[in-house]
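Title: Request for sanity check on histidine kinase prediction

Description:
We are preparing a figure and want to confirm that the structure record we downloaded matches what your pipeline produces today. Could someone re-run it with the sequence below and paste the raw structure tokens into this thread? We only need the token string, no images.
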Amino acid sequence: MFRKLRNRFLIVNLVIITFIMLLAFASIYTITYQNVRKGIDMELHRVTDFYHNPDGNKGVPRPGGSPLPQQSYDTAGPPPERSVSFLLQADDQWNLVAANSRFDMDTDFYTLALQKAASSKSDNGQFHLEGNTWAYLVQKNGTGNSVVYLDITAQMNILTNLIYTFSVVGFIMLIVIFFTSRFFANRSISPVKEAFNKQKQFIADASHELKTPLAVINTNADVLLANSDDTIHNQVKWLHHIKSETERMKTLTNDLLYLTEMEDSRAGLLFANFNISEAVEGVILTMEAVVYEKDISLTYEIEPDLSLRGSCEQIKQVVMILLDNAIKYTKPKGSIALTLQKRHSDILLTVTNTGEGIPSDHLGRIFDRFYRANQSRSRKSGGYGLGLAIAKSIVEQHKGKIYAKSVLNETTSFYVQLS
């Protein structure tokens, strides 16, 4: 499924970028072609004026001599911009009468050039002859047809080389774009893939967590049905088991609903300024009895009168989750330390407890739903692995950060940074 999605992204990217690239190349080529054609036309007309201006110029006979009669032109100096050009005079039947050229060519060459011009229905055009490209312009006069030829091989080579360049560059760019698009396509679907996998894992974990209490309820119900003649007093043990598992399921569903509400962007949170120092101290006082009962040492250091804008009840819930988590995983005679202090412009809450610690490869996942580093202790601790996920959602709603550090068989610390 994800491969198809990636390929779809890849194809769409390639099609769009290829279209843009072709459009850019076509635009550049069209502009270049128009400029080259315009330059050729201007040069051809300048050369034509050069050959047909008897007053300001003096004719130049064809070098090397020729049996063809030379037509004299009053031309002076070379043609404009030293262009390779020549003029042929033909009668009405397109028979060669005279030639005015700056280079020596045989009669067959001139005859072929005249035939190219005669075979065209237009007074101007271009053709290939003996490896060169020529542009011509026909003008009728009293003795027949006067044709001026201009060598435009260099200009046409520019256009040809431009096409070759575009082809090579385009091919290389397509290869680069393919691998680049593939890289970004993989990155684009990574969040989708991660969300999909998390959803699958969430469904599997939720099903697993519900499976155990449902099995317990079903078993106890079967026992009750098997002893239907007994009094309720004699069956109270099984009823207590059913009640206990029902409460566990209720807690699970409430936590899941709470997480959903927290992650819903439409869930409007009413933030107000409150004294976070007093809020944290109040939570500690409610937890002291549990700490004392488990024979754990609890120390805390709270900077007084720290103010925070947010939800007081939700921040209390974060503190309670972290303390409850620390109590669950701290052995008797162990210790828990809590600090709340101002650090630069932020408020930093730290909860540290002694114990087994968390392996480094688990630290990045302990805030996922249903995730527990030690699965065997899940039912003993009485939790579902949703507490830290709820704490993370609350902290993120407050634009803060929550993270953990641990040293195996020594300490585990949770940090909440709020601004």
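Thanks, this matches our download. Residues 55-151 form one domain.
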